[in-house]
Amino acid sequence: QVQDNTGNLEQAVRAAVDEAKRSERALVQSSRLATVGTLAAGIAHEINNPIGGMQNAVARLLADPGLTEKQRTYLQLVQDGLQRVARTARKVLDFSPKAATAQPFRLRAVIDGARALCEHRLQRHGTELRIAVPDDLPAVHGDPHEIQQVVLNLFLNSLDALEQQGRGGHIDVRAELLGEMVQ
C-alpha cells in the first residue's frame, strides 16, 4: 500500500511540475507580448511628434498661392501619406497595453476598432467582414481594450484560415441580447 501511495505521489508531483512548466512558458510569452506592446506604444509616440511637424510644414506649403498644379498634387500626396501614418500610430497607441479597468462599453465600438486594425488585410485578401450587431444592444461591462484584443485575434485567426483556402470568403460577427446577457 505504501508502494502504491509512493507511486501515486510521484505521478502527482510529475504532473504538477509539468503544469508549472506550462504555466511558466505561458507567463514568459505573455510578458514578451506586453513588452512588445509597450515598445510599439513608445515607437508610436516617437513617430507622432515629427509627423505633426511635417503635417504643419506641408499645410503651410500648400497655402502658397504660387504653387504649380504638379507641386500641389505632390504636396497633397505627401499630406495624405502623413495622415495615414498618423492614423496608424494613433491606432497603435489606442491598442497598446494599459492597466485593465472594467467599465461599461459598446460592443460595436470594440468590434469596429478591431476591424480598423485589420482592414488592410481584409481588403488585400478580398475578405468580407459582415457585422450584425444591433445599435440598441446595452453596454457590456469589462475592459474594452482587452476585449478588442480578443476580437482582433479572432479576426486574424479567421483570416489565416481563409487565406489557406484561397482568396475571398467572409467572416460573420453577430451579437444579440439574450435575457440580460449579450451573446
Largest sheet: 2 strands, antiparallel
Beta-sheet strand percentage?
Answer: 5-15%
Radius of gyration: 24 Å
The order of strands across the largest sheet is 1-3
Low-confidence parts: none
Q: Compute the number of strand runs.
A: 6
Tally of helical segments: 4
SSE run: HHEHEEHEEE
State the end-to-end distance: 52 Å
Oligomer: single chain
Which shape, going by the Cα principal axes? elongated
Word description of this protein:
Strand 5 and strand 6 (181-182) form a beta hairpin. The termini are far apart. Helix 1 packs antiparallel against helix 2 and helix 3 (107-125) runs parallel beside helix 4 (144-165). The chain has helices spanning 2-62, 69-95, 107-125, 144-165; strands at residues 103-105, 128-132, 140-142, 170-174, 177-178, 181-182. Strands 1-3 form a two-stranded antiparallel sheet. The chain is elongated and about 100 Å long. It is mainly alpha-helical and 183 residues long.
How are the SSEs placed, and which strands pair?
Elements: H1 2-62, H2 69-95, E1 103-105, H3 107-125, E2 128-132, E3 140-142, H4 144-165, E4 170-174, E5 177-178, E6 181-182
Parallel strand pairs: 2-4
Antiparallel strand pairs: 1-3, 5-6
What's this, in brief?
The chain has 183 residues and is mainly alpha-helical. It contains four helices and six strands, in the order ααβαββαβββ. It has helices at residues 2-62, 69-95, 107-125, 144-165; strands spanning 103-105, 128-132, 140-142, 170-174, 177-178, 181-182.
